Amino acid sequence: MICVTIARPTHRQMISDCHSLTSQGLTLAELRLDHLQETPDITALLSNCIAKVILTVRKAEDGGVFCGTEEKRRQLLLAAMNSGAEYVDLEDGTAAELPRTGTAKRLVSFHDFVKTPEDLDALYDRLASQDADVVKLACMAQTPMDSLRMLDLVKRKRNAKVPVVGFCMGEMGKPSRILCQALGSPFTYCAPNAQEAVAPGMISWEEMRSLYRAEELTEETEVFGVIADPVGHSMSPLIHNSAFIENGLPDRVYLPLRIPPKDLDAFMEIAPKVLKMRGLSVTIPHKEKVIPLLDSVDTSVKLIAACNTVLWGPDGSSEGTNTDYQAAMSSFAETLSVPGPHHIDGWTEPLDDPKTGAILAKPILGKTALILGSGGVGKALAIGLARRGAKLILTDIDLSRAQALAERLALDGFETQTADWNARHEQEADFLVNCTPIGMSPNADASPWDPNRLRPSHICFDAVYNPEETLFIRSAKEKGCATVNGLQMFVKQAGLQFERFTQTAPPLARMRAVVKQALEN
Questions:
Q1: Smallest Cα–Cα separation from 144: which of 235, 234, 265?
Q2: Residue 338 is inside which H or E element, if any?
Q3: pTM
Q4: Three-state DSSP class for 471?
Q5: How many CA atoms lie within 13 A of 334 on its CB side?
Q6: Fold for domain 2-219?
Q7: Is the pLDDT of residue 343 over 50?
Q8: What are phi and psi of 313, to 5 degrees?
Q9: pLDDT number for residue 362
Q10: Which residues are annotated as catalytic?
Q11: CATH H superfamily, domain 334-484
């Protein structure tokens, strides 16, 4: 069950919101009486709200806005307990001082907007001892492990006499908000919409029920996600959850997982023990650091020394692969009309260079590619093009990164040069490949390349996909250049991940459509 928290200044607005949400399927609403700017009329609220109701009068120290005396607040809570509401929220301490009365169930709550206490079991026991029907724990996640600890508590209390609604707040707490009900909480909380959240990390009603399908999730739900820091900008949850729905795949969910670098090792160890982890998309800053934490990696990771996809098998073993590499080459294949099948898994030419194992592709063989940026995507493009016979010039704002990649490629027998970033326009190249974030929204008026230095013979690739048509790509089209945009590659790599995650064909048209719609909005 999903509970929507309604915190509005007037009875009319609260009732209107309740009617609107009930018509969309809402069955439980929390009415925040502390937000009312008029004398609360509990009878009027309950008689006009079809859904079951939790009545809450939150004091400031617990995240509320009640400005009256504590005595007035307790009088209001007593009235709520006798009102016929489904639940009344009683904070830790307050619950111990207010004896049971009326028919409302006692939801004994604890809030910590700074941290998640270490001993959650002791905290649960303290709250449950205050004549609780349900315990609520809402604590700020300082690390991803806080959310995992909270979800582990929820799992262990699934069949307890007093169940627990347990989740963490903040960006790192979002996964626990989505999963707590699946693991044993009677319900989870969300906001009516993104603008009306009353606590950090609160998810909207629409996202919770339609994108994450929280009410359909169970303890057996297969969990996927994107690990990054930051992660808020990622479109991966939108694209993968939409694909699950499009393909009719139940009991799967894809989560935004903000994992700071210092927490990566612990997360990779603990998450599979608490959740039924099946796969991860890996992005900045974890593509290299995740590799030694895996049981095995495939050839693509060994080639690039970067991993963007993690898979867990039925036996719990983890494997790394890289779909950036395959998607980038497949995108080039389409643009250059390379002979042979142009499937989503990339080109299928035989390995016919015994020295380097290169896949010699005529449209690329002997051409020069200038790679702007030497991060994870830059590595994927550089190695993919080199293996297909291109000569490389690597440049990066941090020249040492380009030099390190060049040295690695040289060891494998590939012809590679480096150039200072400020001298990039002086390089003669057939391919201009942008693997930097230059031009990404909100800085869409920037370009990594001077439009006046473009030639119609240039083949231009931009890894940036937001906006879909960057200034670099738009300028290249105006010059008559062949182009490959970042959205093309992004959807392909996501499709490859989806195929590995689910062993089903990715709904590429749907995946592309949801990303385009999100970018347009």
A1: 265
A2: none
A3: 0.90
A4: helix
A5: 16
A6: TIM Barrel (3.20.20)
A7: no
A8: -85, 175
A9: 60
A10: 287
A11: NAD(P)-binding Rossmann-like Domain (3.40.50.720)
